[in-house]
Structure formats: structure tokens, C-alpha cells
């Protein structure tokens, strides 16, 4: 399989919106809206390679052959719960996509991620899968989610995140070298508690106002 690439958003609007999100004084409402907005930008980049065909239409001026999507089927798969914050933005870009859900928890002793919930469209193996999660920190949960999708026969998988740590990127590149990573930004490192530095804190708590 081809080696996956890391795509970092090189756009002033994404950089500006992420800076607002990083501020600890940003409200839950604004944080949630910004997650969705940046999700749109990242989905825009992640769907750049969707195949096109043509169809004939009548413009107000004349008949014309115009490009149209070639019917490639997509699925958006948020990693619960923080990944839910990105779904709306992605669906605004690709409203016909189906949505699957995957829930992961970390074993307190081994720190290994385990799947506690997985509900997918029946034809998930035939779809290109966009796994979404705000943070790629250690990479353990994302790697486990990709494992689950591959077990279900998925061949085309992309990982979309707002902020990634180099450690998380290295984990995915090692475990799943065929998966492309799309990130709003790549930060400096992880701290001793596994949080991304400078990061933006616990994305789930900030999206849902639980802290």
C-alpha cells in the first residue's frame, strides 16, 4: 500500500481560529463553533482527491458539460465523545456522507485503548472513511479506531484532527503507514500527563462544557 502523508493546514483562517481556541478564556459556545468551522476546512482538504465526472445542464446562457462528484461514498466516523464536535462541519462539506460512531476507553493499568461501542453503516467497507477527533496526542485511540475500521474491511481511511503532537503522528505512521493524516496544526510535544503542548486542553470538556 502507498505510504500515508501528513497534511497540515497552511491557511491563515485556520491558524487564527485555532489561536482563539487555544485561549483558555474562550467560551464553550465559541469553542464549539470553531471546532465545527475548522472541521469544514480540514474536510475541504481531505476531499480534494474525490473523483469527478461530468453531466450536461442548461445554464441561463447555454447547454454545458459541468463537473460533478462521481458518486464516491463517504463515511464520517467520530471517536466518542470529542470527535462529535467535528461531525457537523464535515457534513456541511459532504452532506451525503453516512455517520458511524466509535467509542474507546483506556485500560487504567495497561493504558491500552479498548472499543466499547461501534455502530457503522452496513456498507462501511465500500466507503472512504474519515475518522475525526480533535486531538492526536499519543495516537493510541486513533490507531485503535483505525484497527477497528480495517477489521470491518475498510480500505480507504483518513484521519482528520485539529491539533496533532509529533508523538501521535509517529504512532499512526508506524501502526498504519497507509493512512493519511490531516491536521489543523502540529504542536511541540506531549507533557508528562499526555496533553499536547501548547495544545488547547481537553477538547471534549471544552466542547461540551463539562469542566
Based on DSSP secondary structure assignment, what is the total number of beta strands?
13
Oligomeric composition of the shown chains: single chain
Major sheet details: 9 strands, mixed
Q: Mean pLDDT, rounded to whole units?
A: 92
Return Rg in Å: 18 Å
Distance between the termini: 42 Å
Shape: globular
- Level of helix content? 25-40%
Strand content is 25-35%
Report the structural category.
Answer: alpha/beta
Helix count from the secondary structure assignment? 6
Low-confidence stretches: none
Summary?
This protein is an alpha/beta fold and 211 residues long. It has helices spanning 12-22, 28-46, 84-93, 140-151, 166-175, 203-208; strands at residues 6-8, 52-58, 63-69, 74-80, 98-99, 101-106, 113-119, 128-132, 135-136, 157-164, 180-186, 189-190, 196-197.
Write the layout of secondary structure elements.
Blueprint: E1 6-8, H1 12-22, H2 28-46, E2 52-58, E3 63-69, E4 74-80, H3 84-93, E5 98-99, E6 101-106, E7 113-119, E8 128-132, E9 135-136, H4 140-151, E10 157-164, H5 166-175, E11 180-186, E12 189-190, E13 196-197, H6 203-208
Parallel strand pairs: 1-11, 4-5, 4-6, 4-8, 8-10, 9-10, 10-11
Antiparallel strand pairs: 2-3, 6-7, 12-13
Helix pairs in contact: 1-2, 2-3
